[in-house]
Design goal:
It contains 4 helices and no strands. The chain is mainly α. The longest helix has 31 residues.
Length: 125
C-alpha cells in the first residue's frame, strides 16, 4: 500500500510541476503587473516559481519517506503514517471542495490518504 501511495505521490508531483508550469506559472509570470515587493519583478518571478516547485519536491520527499517506511517498518512509524494520511486527507478535501471537484488533485490525494491511513491502522493493530 505504501509503495502505491508513494508512486501516486511522485506522479502528482510530476503532473503538478509540468502542467502547473505550463498552464499557471508561465502565464502568471508573463503578466506585466506583478508586484515588485520592493525587489523588482525578477524577485517575484523567482519567488513564485520556487514556491511552486518546492511543493513538488516536498511531495517527492514524502514519497521517499513512504518507501523507507515500507522497507523498514518500525512501530515508531505509525504516527508518521497518520500524519501523512491526515495531510493528504485535508489536502484532498480542500481540493475537492474549494475547486468544486474541478481540480483533479483530490483524485490522487484521497487515495494516498486512504492507503497511508489503512497501513497505519493495520500496523497499529
Amino acid at each position: 500500500m505504501l509503495i502505491i501511495a508513494a508512486v501516486l505521490t511522485v506522479l502528482v508531483g510530476l503532473f503538478h510541476s509540468i502542467a502547473g508550469e505550463i498552464r499557471l506559472v508561465r502565464p502568471l509570470l508573463a503578466r506585466p503587473d506583478l508586484p515588485s515587493l520592493g525587489h523588482g519583478p525578477w524577485y517575484v518571478r523567482a519567488l513564485i516559481r520556487t514556491a511552486w516547485h518546492i511543493t513538488t519536491l516536498t511531495w517527492w520527499g514524502i514519497a521517499a519517506m513512504l518507501v523507507v517506511i515500507h522497507r523498514a517498518p518500525l512501530p515508531d512509524h505509525v504516527p508518521l503514517l497518520w500524519i501523512i494520511s491526515a495531510v493528504f486527507a485535508v489536502s484532498g478535501v480542500a481540493a475537492l471542495v474549494l475547486s468544486r471537484a474541478k481540480h483533479p488533485a483530490w483524485l490522487a490525494f484521497l487515495p494516498i490518504a486512504g492507503l497511508t491511513g489503512l497501513e497505519a491502522w493495520m500496523r497499529a493493530s
